[in-house]
Amino acid sequence: QVQLVESGGGLVQAGGSLRLSCAASGGTFRRYAMAWFRQSPGKERESVAEISGSGIGTYYLDSVKGRFTISRDNAKNTVYLQMNSLKPEDTGVYYCAAGDLITVRTTPHYWGQGTQVTVSS
């Protein structure tokens, strides 16, 4: 069983930056692809960024490309999401998830509890 704990959310003005962290425990971290999901008010939860177990492969939702960067430190069992040039539409609860590379976007095995990100205009 893998436990995921997110941190780093908060309130920021449009154009600002935040760095989310997700600490994993209870499993072999490097075996899992990791993803950050976002659930915005009135919208379904969507994957905004994913990274392979090695850290070589990444995916980004079109609307965050060039602004968000996902990375991981397998020695620290932690995945990060650096968010720059934030927009009000980036507001939502951000969840960390772990799973298999092919299916982490659709059926992750594990979820964190979420961290709120609010971007004011």
Describe the structure.
- With 121 residues, this protein is an all-beta fold.
- 0% of the residues lie in helices and 50% in strands.
- It has strands spanning 3-7, 10-13, 18-25, 33-39, 46-51, 58-60, 68-73, 78-83, 92-99, 110-111, 115-120.
- The strands form two sheets. Strands 2, 4, 5, 6, 9, 10 and 11 form a seven-stranded mixed β-sheet that branches. Strands 1-3-8-7 form a four-stranded antiparallel β-sheet, with no helix packed on it.
- Strand 7 (68-73) and strand 8 form a beta hairpin.
Structural features:
four-stranded antiparallel beta sheet, 0% helix, 121 residues, seven-stranded mixed beta sheet, single chain, mainly beta, globular, 11 strands
Please state the overall shape, judged from the principal axes of the Cα atoms: globular
Name the poorly predicted regions.
none
Number of helices: 0
Bin the strand percentage.
Answer: over 45%
* Main structural class: mainly beta
Mean of all residue-level pLDDT scores: 97
User: Mind telling me the C-alpha Rg?
Assistant: 13 Å
Element string (H = helix, E = strand): EEEEEEEEEEE
| Main sheet: strands, sense, barrel | 7 strands, mixed
Oligomer: single chain
> What's the helical proportion of residues?
under 10%
The strand count comes to 11
Q: What is the end-to-end distance?
A: 40 Å
Could you write a compact summary of the structure shown?
This protein has no helices and eleven strands. With 121 residues, it is mostly beta strands.
